[in-house]
Predict the structure.
Amino acid sequence: MAHHNLKGMRKPKLLRSKPKNRKDGKTKKDKAKALEAKGEARGEKVLPGKRVGPAEVSSKTGKTGMNKKEARALANLEKAHRDLYAKDERILLVGEGNFSFARSLCKHLGSASGVYATSFDTAAQLSGKYDDAAEHRKEIEETFGGTCLTGVDCTRIHKIKEFKGAFRKIVFNFPHMGSGEKDVEKSVAQHRQLLAAFFASAVKCLDLNLGCSIHVSLKSGEPYRSWKLVQTARAVCPELDLLTATPFMIDAFEGYEHRRTAGFNERHSAKDSEELEKGAKVYVFRHKRKQEDEVNEESVRKRAKVA
């Protein structure tokens, strides 16, 4: 019989082919179904085939894709963004689009008597670009007591008498000329000039008796990296130093909607600020004079203790 011929030989092992993409015994399809089921159990909606990561979700919206540690880290980043601004500070916002950031900031602060939100566009231009700008301005002024101004050139704010040496913080979120220049090198040069002129003007509007700073938010990647924000600021204003760069968290300010300089059009933009999904940062430049004063004061206190 055939089996007698196998006497004394090892029994051959059965080889099983490994399924593709199976490191932990589960296919991608299995994992997707498990994730979807987990989300549904929590009352959450997960879009099939969509991978949700920490950068795409908010602790407020309750979307899936994060464990407790990631959710805590995200919440801390949002808090760090909000904590850049405090109540009773005099804050100047320049280059506002539909004034949604200014309105969100006012909501966060609770009172906006010290908030001055300005736009380069005139009132007529704003109404043509952003349907919601008028409503936001009205809420800022009538509900929160803030101030909204139109037709303000961010490169000439020092020419406004009331602005000189008046502010603790000056904020320029996502500067862009909106010129539609197709030549990349020419566009980069134009935006460097814009930033240089802004810093030169803004530094004259800081209240040097306080811990004053200038904030500029930029999207990640090109062409924004080529604008060389930090180098431009230092070249024009050596008295400024980069204090920190923190992620710009869209959900840190409720109701904020990113808008293009050219205006809002649903064919080119989305109301959920999806243009910022690739990331953005807030660069905080602090005036060195105040930093040096604080260091000197600390040295005096230490010497006094020793004496």
About this structure: Residues 39-63 have pLDDT under 50 and may be disordered. The chain is about 35% helix and 15% strand. The two ends are 106 Å apart (CA to CA).
